[in-house]
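Final report, Chapter 2: Outcomes

The project's central promise was a pipeline that accepts a single protein chain and returns its three-dimensional structure in a standardized token representation, suitable for archiving and comparison. That pipeline is now operational. To close this chapter, we reproduce one record exactly as it appears in the project archive, with the input sequence first and the structure output second.
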Amino acid sequence: MPKKQKRTGVARPRASAVQKTLPKAPTGISGFDDITDGGLPRGRPTLVAGGPGCGKTLFGLEFLMNGAVEFNEPGVLVTFEETAADLELNVRSLGYDLARLIKDKRIAIEYVRVERSEIEETGEYDLEALFIRLDDALKSVKGKRIVLDTVESLFGGLADTGVLRAELRRLFGWLKERGIAAVIPGEKGANTLTRQGREEYVSDCVIALDHRVIDQISTRRLRVVKYRGSSHGTNEYPFLIDRDGIAVLPVTSLQLQHVASTEHVSTGLPWLDDMFDKRGYFRGSSVLVSGAAGTGKTSIAGHFLDAACRNGERALCFTFEESPSQYARNMGSIGINLNRWSQKDLLHLHAARPSLYGLEAHLATMHRDIDEFKPSVVVVDPLSSFGGGTRNEIHATLIRLIDYLKTLQITTVFTHLIPGSSTGAGVDEAVEVGVSSLMDTWILPRNNLGGNGIRNLLIVKSRGMAHATGDRSFTITSAGVMAERGSRAVPSRSTLRRADA
């Protein structure tokens, strides 16, 4: 029996000695470059596949326009279906002046008319004429990027799959030789990513776009199917198409690495601050205010917004049941003037019906508003409006939202309706979607059974902070949420020990 050879102590050469990461071409698409660790592969073809209305062409246009405007990388758009005049109108809605970019030789449009009814397959298929046109267009602008929209228009008349695959390889090889970052939109097939079912095998990177409608609510999602030579996010990511183009929401940054602040922010109510060891909430914490209808949840949240704006901080409120005008009017009835903060650009009220989007689209919209407004505090009123999904889907959405806010050190107050209870004393399964366990602080206001307008408030928990453990009575008046005289909550044991020391 041969002896085992002894392993030598010579270490294998590692990639870090040269270059560890694949060269990337940033797309400039919000969120997408995060999940691909820098963008699309530079000098390699990327297939963007999906059904009609998914945003394939828009993805390619943004890649091209952002390259020319933001990254000084001119590009060529080869279109088989739309003329330059049509494209100019389409990109104008995104804020791009295509005519100016063409004049400045940062973008070139190559319109290739392909009429399938006029094509007859005979002899060998040859792409030499196309290569000459592409080469000329790329040289005219010193192009680094190219978009071919769409691949079906180019190969739609080919029935021989062997020839089709060979010509695809030839096209992609031609682009690779010249170091061109290419985006090639492709139409989805019946049981394949693309209609021909071949493009995904010869592409170095494949992006799948999906536009699904469930219970009459549409949601767009993106998935990186493959990415040769690079790590990437593998989940489905919701994305939006709006006036600013495409925004992808990277929803899996759940590493629990956010910084825990020791700074405090006021609740907006001195008596409630006293219940939190006279200091209020921790900055960057998540606070749940849950109770039955009429227990003062929104009023408590309104005081929190007002206090932040008084302190010169920016506040953002997502309301799903009232218009901004109605929300501000109702807060005015308890002495809170929110309009003045809106006029000073310290407060932004975002109102939307829960049924307007799916869960992921709501989450992506909130991300975009937070990124644009850059608030220090956020109110979500009410959290219970989030529907249209299973318990697991709602729970996952909340985790993503809370994690994102904590990462940015944004203090957030969520209100939550407990249905089926006049007092809010019993917490039903709706709250136990995992909402309470995700929160740092849980406040439970309740109606008094006596019906005299007096309500009670209990702090169920507040992580990392001493707090009162007993009820505190309060009323809602024209001057705000006022604590009842003579009502005093019982301090926690840790507070008593510190006072005695």
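Archive annotation: The chain is about 30% helix and 25% strand.
This record, like all others produced under the grant, will remain available to the consortium after the project formally closes.
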